[in-house]
TrEMBL record:
Residues 100-177 form the YgjP-like metallopeptidase domain. Pfam families: YgjP-like. The lineage of its organism: Bacteria, Bacillati, Actinomycetota, Actinomycetes, Kitasatosporales. This is YgjP-like metallopeptidase domain-containing protein. Residues 11-25 have a biased composition (Low complexity). Residues 1-39 are annotated as: Disordered. InterPro entries: UTP_pyrophosphatase-like, YgjP-like_metallopeptidase. It comes from Streptomyces griseus subsp. griseus (strain JCM 4626 / CBS 651.72 / NBRC 13350 / KCC S-0626 / ISP 5235). It comes from the Bacteria.
């Protein structure tokens, strides 16, 4: 059973490496004492994933992705305030756009129910829907980057999408958001009756 945040000593460590599923550095530690459980925790800028020694490389890749998503979801449940959101936008702009996208304001809003974010380049303002709160961190980062890109390139032409190619989880985040929208459109099933 996977758990995020636990730690087990005595694991054989694999050298730290960049994960294919994210930009974070991931270190996988295999342990002969670990039978079924998989766990992960953050250690500075690295993520440590603890797995059973017998796990195949394919299982390892799958579990690393699962645990990164689980940690990101736990971290994003800590709701960022507008100040933290502004700081996060500045870090993302520096990392992916050489600091060229400089919003004046970045804030959460509760009146965007059909859009995840919006940007007014003339004012330098970015607004994110409150519906993103609680979603995985990489999804919030994608929406922030999407709106930051609009400060540099209006519209959704090839130049705009080229900017977002720098973010390694663009397609995954877009797929996540599409899944949320699709789930919202599904008819709600009646609750099961107890007999």
């Amino acid at each position: 059973m996977p758990s995020a945040g636990s730690h087990q000593r005595g694991a054989a460590a694999r050298p730290a490496r960049a994960s294919a599923t994210s930009a974070v550095e991931v270190e996988v530690r295999r342990s002969t004492r670990r039978r079924k459980s998989v766990s992960a925790y953050r250690e500075g800028d690295r993520t440590i994933v603890l797995i059973p020694a017998r796990m195949s490389q394919a299982e390892e890749r799958r579990w690393v992705g699962v645990m990164l998503d689980k940690l990101a979801a736990q971290e994003s449940k800590r709701h960022l305030g507008d100040t933290e959101l502004t700081e996060r936008a500045a870090r993302l702009s520096a990392q992916y756009f050489d600091g060229r996208a400089r919003p004046v304001t970045v804030r959460w809003v509760t009146n965007q129910n059909t859009r995840w974010g919006s940007c007014t380049p003339a004012e330098g303002s970015i607004r994110l829907s409150h519906r993103l709160q609680g979603m995985p961190e990489y999804v919030v980062d994608y929406v922030l980057l999407h709106e930051l890109a609009h400060l540099l390139v209006p519209g959704h032409g090839p130049d705009f999408w080229r900017l977002l190619e720098a973010y390694p989880r663009t397609e995954r985040a877009r797929g996540y958001l599409e899944g949320v929208v699709a789930a919202e459109r599904l008819p709600h099933l009646p609750a099961a009756r107890e007999e």
